[in-house]
Amino acid sequence: MKVIVLAEKPSVAKEIARVMGSREKQKNYFEGPKYIVTWALGHLVGLAEPEDYDKKYQTWVLEDLPILPDNTRLKVLKETSHQFKTVQHLMKRPDVGEMIIATDAAREGELLARWILKMAKWNKPFKRLWISSQTDKAIKEGFASLKPGQQFDRLYESARCRAEADWMVGLNVTRALTTKFNAQLSAGRVQTPTLGMIMDREKEIVNFRSQEYETLQADLGSFEVSWRPAGGDGRLFEKDKAAKLKQKLEGSTGKIVSVKKSEKTEPHPLAYDLTELQRDANRRFGFSAKQTSNVLQRLYEQHKLVTYPRTDSRYLTSDMVGTLKERLSSIAIGPYASIARPLLRKNLSPGKRVVDDSKVTDHHAIIPTEQTVLLNQLSVDERKLYDLIVRRFISLFYPPARYDNVSVTVQIEGEQLYAKGTTIKDSGWREVYGGDYDDDADDEQDDAPGQSSGKLLPELREGESVKVVRCVLKPGRTQPPKRYNEAALLSQMEKHGLGTPATRADIIEKLVSSDTIERQGQSLHPTGKGKQLIELVAPELRTPELTARWEAELERIAKGQGKPEPFLRGIRDMTKKLVTDVKGSEAEYKPHNVSNSHCPDCGTRLLEKKTKRGKLLVCPSDDCGYKRSGEKRLSNRRCPQCHKKMEMKEGKAGLFVQCLGCGITETLKKDAKHVNKREERKLVQQYSKPEFIGSNLGDLLKAALEQKGKE
């Protein structure tokens, strides 16, 4: 009997087929002596739509909500139905006796495979391929140690609950908001609280009132100190007080009352999980979370250079220790040779900061594979991301960085002034980064004002006398909180349990594509639509606490500590309440993106929407559907009066050109004869005689062109 292998994508199926000897290529699968390898093209089966339960739901009506079927149905997705038929046909072959699920080894991968098995009515044995990289070695080892399919039943139940919860909440609240306020308003259990966090930050910024302040620094000749009161941060908000303090200290003498030295050790950063890698790539290269996910997927799937991307663990497992030298050997080339080769001559004994089985669930941290790397085959973005992963991996085997901290306290005229200095004793793991490693944490905090820190200090002794050479008051202004960039937002989403490493990038992109937030440089700003939307949804859906509880419950279900039925009952009750709140709302929604252009078909003012291809003008009327590009399209025609290029537009009669400055309009007809510029000027002059005085230039040109056509 043969075994059917179900992969998630054609590219993965191709590699499995090659490694496992299935060399006979068919249109939608590969076949060999033992294995038939096919693929799922992502989801082939999904949850049924409301109209699949009742045709009346094709029309969105507020009174029909909430839509909560007693028994959830599945349906074959239309766009991939041809591939489902292939998979179903292969499952029903009499010579097929077993199935191996080889979709992504994660919650979503388990879900899409189980739905296919359920829809195709598979009732034969099945096993699970659970691997963390796509190398030939990993595939062979995975097939040699297949796991029983039932071992992942709880993971499937967790995934099913997630999908059904998103369907109930997202579909019902979105339909309720859209029909109630007659606008395309989308909400969901994860995207809405994420928008809520961005909006909360926006309110903090809007309500912030900036204040001017000054800080005082004193030059003592060989080093500088900053004034700071006990328990304060050195900011002086009263100008007269600052001036008096400067006058008091200027030219005064004092003494060093304290010199404290302490040796600090700084261990290497933990290995990357997906969220930390997305944060780092955003901080260093400006990559969006989605961009990092896409590039990382190519490194994993196409180049086979890194392990499974969508992990939430930053540790390795003990059974991987034996593979570490092989991985280091594969990357000890080019820019990494000098920092990786010394490790190959040592015995690697990583500690609990690297290897900890208790902190690895489905997948270990993202690290390089044993695959030999050819750097010249990687794109610029792939090189950048690969460099981050490789250097982080190498740094795991370097010792901590050691440095001396020096804190100095100076007393002058009864005032306390401070200085801090740092002396590197052993760069340790920082050597991997050439000393250029900057960990900005969440990019949320700046250095406290009025502190002299990080500078090299001379040898200083307690009791030593000092004299103020010069005092300087440095002006400053209190700053509002920073708007979230993607790195900071990912940190907050992770902190509050919003989404998973695999879904957070898509949540951010969904908020952007639905025009509720927008990117301005590296910052994320709420749009006018987003600002209104967050006020229209129920308060409990705006904050992350509720969704975080749901996500924690899904994790409990995956571990067998919780049950699906109580969770889904709670979601149904919550959905009913959310819809009731929308129905009873007395709020109003005003489109924020109304343009000055009118629909040529129905006369309604068009709405301006941002797309990946630029601005789009769309008619909001339900029964119209008119849309056109909102970008200015300049034609090669020039205005006969001001000679500027005319803008191309579209109306009921078709295309026309118009000069925005002069107002001259010309229609464009496919059968119109070409008139060159010289003839155009001649015709305008000919018909600009006294008998034509009183006509506008557009009429003159029209008459001239008509005359030319007759000739």
TrEMBL record:
Domain Toprim stretches: 2-133
Region (Disordered): 431-459
Reactions that this protein is recorded to catalyse: ATP-independent breakage of single-stranded DNA, followed by passage and rejoining
Biased composition regions of type Acidic residues, renumbered to the chain: 436-447
Record keywords, A-Z: DNA-binding, Isomerase, Magnesium, Metal-binding, Topoisomerase
One term under GO cellular component: cytoplasmic replication fork
CDD domains, A to Z: TOP1Ac, TOPRIM_TopoIA_TopoIII
UniProt similarity note: Belongs to the type IA topoisomerase family.
Name used for this protein in its record: DNA topoisomerase
Record organism: Paenibacillus solani
Lineage: Bacteria, Bacillati, Bacillota, Bacilli, Bacillales
